Amino acid sequence: MKMVLASGNQGKLTELKTMLAHLNIEVLSLADYPEMPETVEDGHSFESNAQKKAREAAEYTGLLALADDSGLEVDFLNGQPGVHSARFAGEPKDDAANNEKLLQLLKGLPWEKRTARFRCVIAICTPAGEMYTADGSCAGFILEQSRGDGGFGYDPLFYVPQYDKTFAELTMEEKNKISHRGIALKKAVQILERIKEGLIR
Ligand code: IMP
Predict the structure, then answer these.
(1) Mean pLDDT of 67-79
(2) What stretch of H or E contains 137?
(3) What's the pLDDT tens digit per position in 150-170?
(4) Which residues are catalytically annotated?
(5) Which atom, in ligand 1's list, is nearest to the CA of 71?
(6) Does the beta carbon of 154 sit less than 6 angstroms from any atom of ligand 1?
(7) Average of pLDDT values for 96-103?
(8) Which of 6, 115, 124, 181 is most buried per CB count within 10 Å?
(9) Distance from residue 119's CA to the centre of ligand 1 (Å)
(10) What is the mean pLDDT of the chain?
(11) Domain definitions of the chain by residue range
(12) What is the CA radius of gyration of the chain?
């Protein structure tokens, strides 16, 4: 069985291949289809963006397709930056500028109001057009200053009480265990197992 990851991101491809190693699924990515038009991510939710990416990749390639969309929701900002997480501070995409903007918006805000969560939605679209979704979230607090130098994006500001660390201070293994993407991916693997066994199509 062949599947395409609706992303050109090498890190995500490696992670997916590792998670699917037991399933004997050949995983391609959009790097294998450079001529495919880029999906416009204009949805108002992680679900709609992930589903649009998966559907377009399945239609273009004729293969089973998997796509993810993720971001940070800050309660005090009514769920922002949400689907705008990557470009919160505008173009071009800049993690440091995004983090600085977030710090400014939360300046002086007491600890108990600095709650936030990362969310991830994974959409799987079959060649027949059937859509399945899996989601994951991870709750935490936005610190008043960065801590740690691992990870990417908002990781240095995202504190998880369970580990008394930010995402940027966790090992990859620790992060995968509790992260929004790790949780959604585990559920997605279960869906793929059922597709592979022919239990759903
Ligand atoms: P994407 O959907 O994986 O491209 O992520 C969109 C944006 O959400 C990223 O550019 C980051 O700003 C933010 N984001 C998503 N997941 C994470 C994470 O695990 N750590 C830090 N930032 C994240």
Answers:
(1) 98
(2) strand 131-142
(3) 999 999 999 999 999 999 999
(4) 69
(5) 8
(6) yes
(7) 98
(8) 6
(9) 9
(10) 96
(11) 2-196
(12) 17
